[in-house]
Amino acid sequence: MNNFETIETSNSKIEEPEQTLEEEKKFLEQDEKELHGLMQGLRSHVGVLLHRGFSMVAIMGLLSGALGKVNAEELVKQVGFVEPKVQIDDANIEDRDVMREGRVAESVQHNFGNIYELQSRSIDGEFYPSGKNTIFERAESPVDILVSGGFAEDPQILHRYAMFVETIDVEDVDSLLEEHSEQIQDDQGAQEALREALQDKFVYLVAKQFLEDGGEFYFGRGRYTPDPLGIIFGDNAGAQGIQKTLIHELQHYAFDKQDAAISEIEASGGFDHNFIGAIDDRFDIIYAISHGEIPSSDDVQPMSNYTINGGIEEQINDFLENNDISGLQQFVESDKFITTYVQTDMVTCLSINEHAKNSRYLIFELSNGAVLRLKEDYRAADEIDVNTFDAQSGKYIDFTVNNLESLSIENLEQFVPDGELDNIIDSIELHKNDPDKSRGPMINNDQIDDIAYLNAYNASILQQSIRLAAILSEKMGVSVEDVYRHEQYQEIFTTFIKELSDKQSADEKSPVNQSARQIMDSQLASLLS
Amino acid sequence: MKKTIINNKQELQDIKVKRAKLAEEKSKFEQALDILDKKLTKSKNE
User: Fold this and answer.
1) Across the interface, which of B5, B23, B46 has its CB nearest the CB of A14?
2) How many CB atoms lie within 10 A of CB A465?
């Protein structure tokens, strides 16, 4: 019998794998710990950036640059950067109307599971501006007065800026650029973008004031600097990207010049980006269409798939791939189209507010080079969460507590060099006594309403442009994609945006979605008669 | 005993696969962390 031998052999065979197995288990445990640390670090970084005024979309954009859009979104999912689910019972929404007169509350659910509440929609289903002109409302106490004084003529950023509904003769544009040629760095692509963009009357007004204030245009990665007054733009691939950057940076200048409350706050970038993003989207929608293309989510972010309503672009493409023109018409004419567009953009603002409402950071740079970050988040677990990790700029020690009251000297002293604890304890005491101290600024209800309105304006333009394409496509017997390049389509669309911007700027209480539909109806009536 | 060996080998293989996946995840997180870290340092200085 060779049982013994077999066992011996088996044992000798077992020994090595078992040893390796135990080692591998330890390594696995270590890997999991490191991964947890990295996740915590990433989550903490995202939190601090949000606290400094960066939007969640902007942060995802940062990650997209290196990892690609899909990976960046996936990464955020993996990191689990989600606000706790605040469940809103749709059945009780009517009861919540009392919270803001004339507006209904809608739940907005992000694909990651976060649920927010948007209270900007009127009871008639329309999104109206606040009536307070928050986009250009002056700050009571501007933080930066280097660039100030406002505009002699309103650049009409809310309803007309960069829509090319009123134009300037190219000779006049050339004359302005020639007059200030020493303030404009020589670059052919950017010169062409300036020449084209300034043919929009309202972009021209802003750029003219900028040049008269001594501002200089440089070419590189997009940026606005108040001192020295300058705008950098021009390294984006393609004429659309270059123009968009110019139009974007000029808005920063316009808000600064106006001392607008949305930019004059003590937060990195202020909230002007939330407005500027919607104006940029409007430019991209109109630019694409007027160049014979269907707008894409690559440029128009609210067409992306961020909420449980799905992505507008994906749904449009499904109909187009199946040549289902009547399905496409039904979809674009549905209330879901507007709701999805508006909610997809607004989820960023709502996320910023949710974050600011519930959490704040106390940040201490220690003499040993480490950074101590104390995060108070009302929604955190009762246990104190401590995490340390090394990043390129140094070591981070992160504490998360649901109440600063629960932090004690014992928790901190092992991480803090001698003699530095007292200052930290003093700061914690100050924060305990002032619950608003170090809390990130929130976007107020009027600002939220105005951003929602801008999105409803954009959605209505997009909605009617696709509706027109579907109808003309059937009438002409050509594909929806091809119809955008047809002269008749371009003529109707140009008239449509002109009339819509006229109507909305003359009376901002005009229901934008209904107005857009009526204007397009009258265009279609003459077309189909 | 043979069954144990097979089980151990299988477990070892599973752990190795899991560690390989974790390594990929870690690499992604490290890249992401570096990007945000740079932004954070820059915004602190601005």
Assistant:
1) B5
2) 25
- What is the number of CB-based contacts under 8 A between chain A and chain B? 101
The whole-angstrom separation of Cα A506 and Cα A159 is 10
Nearest-Cα distance to chain B for A408, in Å, is 27
Tell me, yes or no, if A38 comes closer than 8 A to chain B by beta carbon: yes
Closest CA to A219 of A198, A241, A190: A190
Residues in chain A closer than 8 A to B29 (CB atoms): 35, 38-39, 41-42, 75, 79
3-class secondary structure for B20-37?
A: HHHHHHHHHHHHHHHHHH
Contact at CB, A35 and B26, closer than 8 angstroms? yes
Residues of chain A contacting residue B41, judged by C-beta atoms under 8 Å apart: 392-393
Paired sense of beta strands A371-377 and A394-401, if any: parallel
Question: Cis peptide leading into A228, omega within 30 of 0?
Answer: yes
Interaxial angle between packed helices A69-79 and A56-67, expressed in degrees from 0 to 180 and rounded to the nearest 10:
120
Task: Provide the shortest C-alpha distance from residue A461 to chain B (in Å).
Answer: 35
Which one, of A333, A301, A339, A298, lies nearest residue A319 by Cα? A333
Q: What residues does each domain of chain A span?
A: 3-79, 170-257
Q: What letter represents residue B19's amino acid? A: R
Angle among Cα A14, B8, A15 to the nearest 5 degrees reads 20
Chain A partners of B39 at a C-beta cutoff of 8 Å?
49, 54, 62
Q: What is the DSSP string of A258-286?
A: TTBTTTSSSSTTTTHHHHHHHHHHHHHHH
Question: How many angstroms separate the CA atoms of A344 and A223, rounded?
Answer: 26
Instruction: Kindly give the confidence (pLDDT) of every residue in chain A, 529 residues in length, as a single tens digit, with 9 standing for 90 and above.
Output: 333 333 333 344 444 556 688 888 888 888 888 887 777 777 778 777 766 666 666 777 777 765 666 666 665 655 544 454 444 444 433 443 344 667 888 889 888 778 888 989 998 899 999 888 888 877 777 666 678 888 999 999 999 999 999 999 999 999 999 999 999 998 888 889 999 999 999 999 999 999 999 999 998 878 888 889 999 988 777 889 999 999 999 998 999 898 887 776 544 445 777 889 999 999 999 999 999 999 999 899 899 888 889 999 999 999 999 999 999 999 999 999 999 999 999 988 888 888 888 888 898 989 998 989 898 988 888 888 888 888 777 788 989 899 999 988 888 999 999 899 999 999 999 999 999 888 877 888 889 999 999 999 999 999 999 999 999 999 999 999 999 999 999 999 999 999 999 999 999 889 999 999 999 999 999 877 7
Distance of residue B2 Cα from the nearest chain A Cα, in angstroms = 7
Question: Which value does ipTM take for this structure?
Answer: 0.86
Enter the pTM of the model: 0.79
3-state DSSP helix/strand/coil % of chain A, to nearest 5: 55, 15, 30
The partner residue sitting opposite B32, judged by closest CB among A11, A18, A42, is A42
Q: Which residues, other chains included, contact A461 with Cβ-Cβ below 8 Å and sequence gap of 6+?
A: A282, A285, A286, A496, A497, A500, A516
